[in-house]
Design brief:
Strand content: under 5%
Number of helices: 8
CATH superfamily of the domain at 5-156: nmb1532 protein domain like
Order of helices and strands: HHHHHHHH
CATH topology of the domain at 5-156: Four Helix Bundle (Hemerythrin (Met), subunit A)
Largest sheet: none
CATH class of the domain at 5-156: Mainly Alpha
Helix content: over 70%
Radius of gyration: 18 Å
Shape: globular
Structural class: mainly alpha
């Protein structure tokens, strides 16, 4: 059946990055478009990861749980869908404000507030998902079906940013989980990702947050 450890890894990554982003935006001086571009690039990446993460759940996970999970799934999946809709509205607010701030360096406070609102909705959702959904997935979803979530994300992600995204996920991940995930990857990725990913994330974190080792949030 499904090994849901990778979902906890993804959630930890999302919590950490979205907690750090509002201050990263506020730290950009007004009119500093060069610095705004650096931070905006990371906001764009993290928002894209979130979008694909939730899209995969909408397309793959919710239908499986509604089909097999009985009353427990029927009770919780609509709440998950409502929360996804609320998060998507907050996501739209962020992505709507991002281009203007990126181009002008103006409006950082408004963008930071939108990111805070997105974080608030996201944290509530992730906690409920871990409490209610992941135990159901372990009971009712096969390993092959669970892997479709990751496959959806990989298929729709930019190949240029995949190593960075993997490094971002690895930052707080259990080494045993990383080993198990890489065992399923093609041989070149198995060798390259554990070396390249952390280096790319450390470099990105230095540029965005001013440190190669940003604060960890834990699971």
């Amino acid at each position: 059946m499904a090994d849901v450890r990778d979902m906890y890894m993804a959630h930890t990554m999302l919590r950490r990055e979205f907690r750090l982003l509002p201050q990263a935006v506020l730290d950009v001086a007004a009119n500093d478009t060069k610095r705004a571009e650096v931070v905006a690039l990371h906001v764009e990446l993290v928002c894209g990861v979130l979008h694909l993460h939730h899209e995969g759940e909408d397309l793959v996970l919710w239908p499986l749980l509604l089909e097999r999970g009985g009353e427990a799934s029927a009770a919780i999946v609509p709440t998950m869908e409502e929360q996804h809709n609320a998060i998507h509205r907050a996501y739209d607010e962020v992505t709507g404000l991002l281009p203007g701030w990126r181009a002008t360096g103006q409006g950082g406070e408004e963008l930071a507030r939108a990111l805070e609102q997105l974080l608030s909705a996201l944290v509530e959702h992730l906690a409920l998902e871990e409490k209610e959904i992941l135990p159901l997935a372990e009971k009712h979803v096969t390993a092959a079906e669970w892997n479709q979530l990751a496959e959806h994300g990989f298929a729709k992600s930019s190949k240029k940013t995949l190593p960075l995204t993997f490094g971002m996920a690895m930052y707080e991940a259990d080494p045993e989980l990383i080993k198990d995930l890489l065992a399923q990857a093609p041989p070149p990725a198995r060798l390259i990702m554990p070396l390249l990913g952390p280096r790319l994330y450390a470099s990105r974190a230095q540029r965005v947050y001013g440190t190669r080792t940003p604060p960890r949030v834990g699971a």
